[in-house]
Batch of 3 targets.
Target 1
Amino acid sequence: MTFRNGSIDEEEPTHKLVTQSPSGVKDWDEEGIIGVENRAMEVILDHGSTVHVELDPAHGQFETLRNKLTQVPESDRIFVASEHEHRAVLPEDRTSVDSLLEIQADDTDEWTDRLFNIEAFAVLSDQSWTYRSVPHETHIREINTAGHDGLVEELYKTLEQLRGATVKPFDGS
């Protein structure tokens, strides 16, 4: 994921969300890559004030979200080459964000949209960024805990019952 210079790229990640799906687990299962990220988002969204999302127009909810969320003007975009970047304000737009992330098991269109048609996703706080992700690139699920006391502990507790899911200190790889 590439951020525009001068946006949120100055702060380095402190942790990363790690998912190693056990054999036989599908991406949309609770222990799959989408399920784990969604569980983590339940916690992370509580630590954010805005969400920026880059949506592919092929996304099933594109028109609905385009009408509910604010399109980010080019001067305020945080993603490089972003044409369809929208902003949600938390907690006011939390329902729209949750709707964007949630999927019904075995609904091919929803999990495909969630994994491939959300091109980039970032949760920002007043101080900095809290989370940034390219959903189909599981190695880009970065967390910045600076100024968010207790966030890592909350994530550990939320993820501890999911096999292969955890939060690890960021080592650059």
Target 2
Amino acid sequence: MKKLSHILGNVVLLFTALLCILPFVYMILMSLKSTLNAYDFSFTLSNLTFAHYQNILSGGTIGRYFLNSVIVAFAGVALTLFTSCTAGFAFAKLKFKGNNKIFLLLILTMMVPSEVILVPLYIVVRGMGWVNTFKALILPLPTAFGVFIMRQAILGIPDELLESARIDGASNLKILWSVILPLVKSAMLTLSIFTFIGAWNNFTWPLIITTNDTMRTLPLALTTMKAQYDVDVGLSMACAVITFLPPFIFYLLLQSKFEAGVALNGLKG
């Protein structure tokens, strides 16, 4: 009976995994076809072509879009880690007046939908003259979510370690860099994954704040392709594949390190 339930469980998991993978397989296969019909499921080796990828990559704008996305995503990860780690350390280990109240107000901002602040944010950015700049694309990326993750991770570090470092003459910055950050690598990797994927796939804000093609990011390329060419499902899917692969590869690379960090922390505990 247990063996039968185990087999049924594996079948259900396999079926669920296939359902999750199916859209990505469809996207890749359709990108290798020249068709205007999204329901054309006939695939033969003679019909497969890389013409769509050649068409996209031969354009002068797609390379610039890709470079902008890389700059925004990696700079967003670096900025988010810096602000989240420093703020999380302050809220978790430093005692100052209004600590919990300020943190509560910060967490309450997570309840506000991002669409609500688009207009005020645009007015502020435009007033500072940052339209069509990397500053406008990168600076709004850090959120209270990252501070919350890092604060919760740093709270689990014993205060005795920090006191020992202070007795040795270490400053707060030295304690953060040498003592705390090595112990919260798994949380930092998790935050990096979320931030990179969010920054890479961000569509609404780059669409609003950029009017120049030289500053647009890769997710906007799909809209550009639809505007420049006739509706071609294969071309749209090829653009979607190019947009999808970088964050997927980034996730795969950090996922293994994230699991190793979790296992290491478990052994230390």
Target 3
Amino acid sequence: MIYHEKRVRLPKPKYIVFYNGTKNQPDSMELRLSDCFENTDNEAPCLECTATMLNINYGHNQELMKHCRRLEEYSIFVQCVREYIQSEPSVEDALEKAIDTCIHQDVLADFLKKHRAEVTNMILTTYDKDLYEKTLKEDAREEGREEGLMEGRARGREEGMEYLNQLNKYLLKSKRYNDLERATEDIEYQKKLLKEFGIE
């Protein structure tokens, strides 16, 4: 009925993301599509989408796990796979051992018995150990670079404030009030005064 003027009522959407990556994340957080947008000069975007991210790694969201045994078993299985990947010579060996252990401990036992080959195949085709480790290293390097930049900027601001404080002291001591006032509004004049007093 495209010509009706009456507003069509829609069911309220709720978008949930289950997180089981390896970074340390809170049990729950809100994700916003706009966080991915390039600098919008503090303008509100014309499009927004929010999602609730729930961390389903083992040990997180205990209340949720208590109410959903299947999800809890899945988180135990993933943790088991990760632990064996660290200790076994190959991903294939790690998977075999993790599946056997989980079946023995009645964790997703019915599903793993029935779909063992599919689970193994799915994990082997989506998991590349070398790429995984390389990605972790790249992420760590990127985080280090960002932290370094932030520290550098903070240090630069502190040093800048020290220089300006020194300049202000010299100007006040010399009773050059007009220069002090002009320096607060004219960056080029400020630079000239810093040079004059040998503040670098």
